[in-house]
Structure formats: C-alpha cells, structure tokens
C-alpha cells in the first residue's frame, strides 16, 4: 500500500489528470495539477500545429516550475507535435488509442521523456509492456470520454497488474474514480496510481464550458454510445451524460453522421474556429457559442459523486487526505496513534520500523506520530 504514496515517475503522487479533448486540459489545468504534486497533461491538437504546441508548453511553464506532460491521440496526425514534446523534453508523454511501438518509446526515452500508454485490454497492455513504456493506464468501461475497452475496471486492473508484475511498470487505474475511496480501491487492486478525467473536468481551471461544468454537478446518469462524432472518428464508442438531447436521439440510425446535420454552434479548438454540427464529437469548451446543451458532454460513471466545482489542486489534496484517512481509520487494525499515548509508553519510531514486516511502511512515516504497519499489534 505504501507504494501509492511514494508517487510514480518522479512525481509526488500517483494521481494523473487525464488529457481532456477538445482543448479542455490546457496550460491552466495541467499547471494547477502539477503545482499540487500530481501529473498534469496538456492535450495537444489532433492536427499538426508545432508552433501552437510550443506556445502551449511555454504558457504552462509560465504557470508552474514543476514537471508536467502532454498527450496525443494516435489515430490523428501527431508526428510534428510529438517532435516538439521531445525537443522541449517534457517529463511525460501520454498516448492513447493505438500502438506506440518500441522504436517510438525509445525515441522518447532518448529525449528524457517518459511514456504513459492508456490501454483498454490485457492484449493492449501486453503490447505496451513489450514496447517498454514507463507506465500503463488501464481504462475501464466506466470511463468518461472515448472508451477503448469493453471491460469493467475492477476485473481488468488486477489482471494487468499480474501481467506486468515482473517488469516494475506501474499500473494506473482509470474509469469512474473521483475521490479517495476510488484511489484506495485501486491501490488495493495493485495499481500504483489513478487517472481521473471527469473529476478534473469539473474544476475551476478546466477549460470546459460553464454549462457543461454545471451539468456535471447536477447529473448522475451516463451512457455508453457511438452517437457522436461518427464521421470524424469512425464510430469510436464514448461515455457521455444522458442529457435530454441525447435521450431524444440515442436511437439514431447507424448510417447517420454529423456531416449532414445542421450547425448548432461554434467553438475555437486549439486556435481554430469550428462550426459544431449536431452530433459532432466536440464537447463544449469555454469558447463554445450556440446551443451548448445539445452538444456532446463526456463524463464517466463517477459523475454522480461530483457535486461542486473546486480548484484542481484541491482535488489532489482531498484525494490524498481522504485516502490516507480511509487506510488509517478503516482498513488498518494495527493503527497506532502515538500522540494519544502517555509519553513513557511511546515506542521509538526506529523500533516500529524494524517490527514492521518488510519494514517499508515504518520508514515512510518517519517524522510523524501516526504509524501504520502491517505487523502484529504491539
Ligand atoms: C471530456 C473528456 C475528454 C477526454 N479526452 C481524452 C483524450 O483526449 N485523450 C485521452 O487519452 N483520454 C481522454 N479521455 C479519457 C481519459 O483519458 C480517461 O480514460 C477517463 O477520463 C477516465 O475516466 P473518468 O472520466 O471516469 O475519470 C477523456 C475523458 C473525458 C471525460
């Protein structure tokens, strides 16, 4: 359990802010997450825009001195944008929806960039392991946004953990996790980190449209569909809020796509003006105008637990504090709060560390009066 608190990939915590398209996880969100000690990711454009990408990185660096990363979606042209990530030597590159072979991973490593691959199945995880990635994000079907896998996170996660156990590659759980309870559950299943999309979407720094954020705090039902963006990203399934608009149209015949539909609004995505057609895959970012309530609103199954828009740094702080409290107060029979003991009965921390099976947990809690350890009660 202690490994969850050591952080991963050199970061303070194993909490990853999922990349959020279109243009929703920009410099402000990634920097706020980085400043809180977690892994912030700017979502790069789906078209070649190297100068724009360099500008995004520059802006993020002006908001944080901490390391952060960038993310690409593999079915779209990414070569030129990737080159900038490597030139700028970002801490992390996150990739999704496709293969990222060993040569690519080695190229990133030569630039000092660590690779996180988000996958949705055991087979894909095996390929990522083979390619030598630095972390595998395993996405369950509960996840918001486009969903590559078919399986629930809980049955899938421990299988991936077992698969990579001989490699030391950290496994990061994604899908439906929004608080410390989800964090602890993932750690218990063998993950070393968690990746949250919907929770970070509903933060002050996310670039989602205010109406979209409001719906995230009000609604709790989601559905898994292929209704939106069929022409642009061929029938890629996604999880969305069950808005009244979606409910009215969810049985649209398969051959219908957004291409022949009326325009319902506009938005600027990575500096480019776009008309938003009905059933388009572009969720409303803060620049969206028109009939925002009829635009797609991606969300994971954990959305029912989200009731307020808070700063992204607070999401990280709350997750860690909640998870620690759960482990301390509910999951450990061997909890010992020395501050409550008379001073002559307190046990030196060095002795406790030695009495722990494995000793690791004792070391981690040095300097605090509360000690968690898996050994027999003293
Ligand atoms: C609005 C939104 C946009 C997303 N965009 C991306 C993306 O561009 N790239 C990516 O790898 N994942 C994307 N995802 C999926 C996340 O990486 C992650 O798997 C998911 O958010 C985890 O589930 P959760 O939303 O329940 O936390 C997106 C998710 C949401 C909600």
TrEMBL record:
InterPro entries according to UniProt: Aldolase_TIM (IPR013785), NMO (IPR004136)
Single annotated GO MF: nitronate monooxygenase activity
Chain positions covered by the region annotation Disordered: 358-378
Positions with biased composition (Polar residues): 362-371
Keywords, ordered alphabetically: Flavoprotein, FMN, Oxidoreductase
Keyword Membrane: no
Lineage top rank: taxon: Eukaryota
Record-given protein name: Nitronate monooxygenase domain-containing protein
Protein source organism: Panicum virgatum
């Amino acid at each position: 359990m202690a490994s969850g608190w050591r952080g991963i990939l050199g970061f303070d915590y194993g909490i990853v802010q999922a990349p959020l398209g279109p243009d929703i996880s920009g410099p402000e969100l990634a920097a706020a997450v980085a400043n809180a000690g977690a892994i912030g990711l700017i979502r790069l454009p789906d078209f070649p825009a190297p100068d724009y990408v360099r500008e995004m990185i520059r802006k993020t660096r002006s908001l944080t001195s901490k390391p952060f990363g960038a993310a690409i979606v593999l079915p779209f042209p990414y070569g030129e944008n990737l080159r900038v990530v490597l030139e700028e030597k970002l801490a992390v590159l996150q990739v999704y929806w496709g293969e990222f072979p060993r040569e690519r991973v080695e190229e990133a490593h030569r630039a000092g960039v660590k690779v996180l691959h988000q996958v949705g199945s055991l087979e894909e995880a095996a390929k990522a392991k083979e390619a030598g990635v630095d972390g595998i994000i395993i996405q369950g079907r509960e996840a918001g946004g486009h969903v590559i896998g078919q399986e629930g996170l809980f049955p899938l996660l421990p299988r991936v953990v077992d698969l990579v156990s001989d490699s030391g590659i950290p496994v990061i759980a994604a899908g439906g996790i929004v608080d410390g309870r989800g964090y602890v559950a993932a750690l218990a299943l063998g993950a070393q980190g968690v990746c949250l999309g919907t929770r970070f979407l509903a933060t002050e720094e996310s670039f989602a449209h205010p109406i979209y954020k409001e719906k995230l705090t009000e609604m709790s039902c989601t559905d898994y569909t292929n209704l939106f963006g069929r022409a642009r990203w061929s029938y890629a399934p996604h999880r969305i809020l069950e808005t009244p608009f979606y409910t009215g149209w969810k049985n649209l015949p398969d051959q219908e796509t957004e291409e022949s539909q009326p325009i319902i609004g506009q938005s600027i995505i990575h500096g480019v003006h776009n008309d938003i057609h009905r059933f388009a895959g572009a969720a409303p970012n803060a620049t969206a105008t028109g009939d925002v309530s009829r635009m797609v609103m991606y969300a994971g199954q954990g959305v029912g637990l989200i009731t307020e828009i808070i700063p992204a740094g607070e999401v990280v702080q709350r997750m860690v504090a909640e998870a620690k409290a759960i482990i301390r107060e509910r999951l450990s029979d061997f909890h010992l709060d020395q501050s409550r003991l008379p001073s002559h009965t307190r046990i030196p921390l060095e002795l406790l560390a030695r009495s722990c099976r494995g000793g690791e947990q004792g070391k981690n809690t040095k300097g605090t009066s509360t000690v968690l350890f898996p050994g027999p009660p003293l």
